[in-house]
Here is the input.
Amino acid sequence: MEAPDELLDERALSKLKWRCRRGLLENDLLIEKFFLRHEATLTVRQAKGLNDLMDLSDNDLLDLLLRRKESSQLSDVTAQTSASTFEALEVLNLLRPQQLAP
Here is the structure.
């Protein structure tokens, strides 16, 4: 079994990228930026978090990414659970667009 902080190997990264393809362009763009910034340092733990987030509907994922909702505000209990794992919350912070200072 792989250690949580071990870097993701190339094959696992390729499978994860395939898994992360979404139906909404907005989600795809944010996920693409995430991979451009973090794919070289992506860990097994972060991959688990990303997989947890990919269990969400496109609209729920977009609401989380754009900070319109937090995990606890999702209407579906299964979605709340997937989006509330430690790993999912860690990756969500990396996926969200950086807020501009006023």
The longest helix spans residues 25-38. The chain is about 60% helix and 0% strand. Helices lie at 10-19, 25-38, 44-54, 58-65, 77-83, 86-95.
